[in-house]
Amino acid sequence: MTIPRPEHPNPQWERKNWRNLNGEWEFDFDFGKSAREKELYKNGALSKKITVPFCPESRLSGIGYTDFMPSVCYRKVITLSKEEVAGKVFLHFGAVDFHSYIYVNGKSADEHIGGYASFRVDITTLVKAGENEIFVIAEDDVRSGHQPGGKQSKKYSSYGCSYTRTTGIWQTVWLEFVPRAYIKSVKYYPNITNGTLTVTGEVEGGGELTLCSSYEGKPTGSAVIHVNGGFFTAQLSLSEVHLWEIGHGRLYDLELKFGEDTVKSY
After folding, report:
1. Mean per-residue pLDDT for 39-51?
2. What average pLDDT does this structure show over 150-158?
3. 155-168: pLDDT as tens digits
4. Does the pLDDT of residue 142 top 90, yes or no?
5. Sign of torsion, CA 53 58 62 66?
6. What pLDDT, on the 0 to 100 scale, is given for residue 1?
7. Pairwise CA distance, residues 125 & 31, whole Å
8. pTM over 0.90, yes/no
9. What is the DSSP annotation of the chain?
10. 110, 128 contact by CB (below 8 A)
């Protein structure tokens, strides 16, 4: 089966070791909103199939159910290698509408509130080499008045500028495999006048952090600093200044290396 939306979901923060989990998942409705009480995340297979990341209201999902769904369930079994579980394992969701509960191998991993923002779950301590089960319960009720619904219809049908609702997973789901010492986050602060780029961020572990910039394949600057966990600040002096303007979205490529961790950005 061809995986829908196979591209890396975050090209500004791309590692080589990742796996797209889009495609076929097991699925079921939870009209009684009782999946957590029943502990369905411990009970094995679900009765239906769905194509992630398309929401169950969409025909592309293979479900195409457009009535109200107060809760839905997803299940997927994956196989991980010893190498993949040797470091940190992060489970990413591009978006799940609305209140999601994440379980891995029958244990609670995290929960997230909000249907529009991406989130990441550290599942390092819950996975093992071999088969692993991911289970997601997504509760969603735009008529409750207790959650933002945007233009999602509070009636059965679309009307005016309100459209059929989006429930559950509706953006890419993916795994990221990261060394124990890794770059946790960065922010970029360009200075046009001085032709510099200040990079602030946070790392886990200690070692040498290298930052290299390029423009259309040509090196334009680099910096090396030593960090020992926590936050850092580094500055690159750019040999060429190429500014963004209307009709010309000029971008520098940026590579960050920290021990065995390498991140491609821009």
Report:
1. 96
2. 88
3. 888 889 989 999 99
4. no
5. positive
6. 66
7. 32
8. yes
9. -PPSS-S-S-TTSB-SSEEE--EEEEEEE-TTS-HHHHTGGGS---SEEEEETS-TTSGGGT----S--SEEEEEEEEEE-TTTTSSEEEEEES-EESEEEEEETTEEEEEEE-SSS-EEEE-GGG--SEEEEEEEEEE--TTSSSS--TTB-SSSS-BTTBB----EE-S-EEEEEE-SSEEEEEEEEEETTTTEEEEEEEEEEEEEEEEEEEETTEEEEEEEEEEEEEEEEEEEE-SS----BTTB----EEEEEETTEEEEE-
10. no
Give the pair of three-digit tokens for residue 177.
């495999």
Distance (Å, rounded) from C-alpha 116 to C-alpha 48?
25
pLDDT greater at residue 31 or residue 155: 31
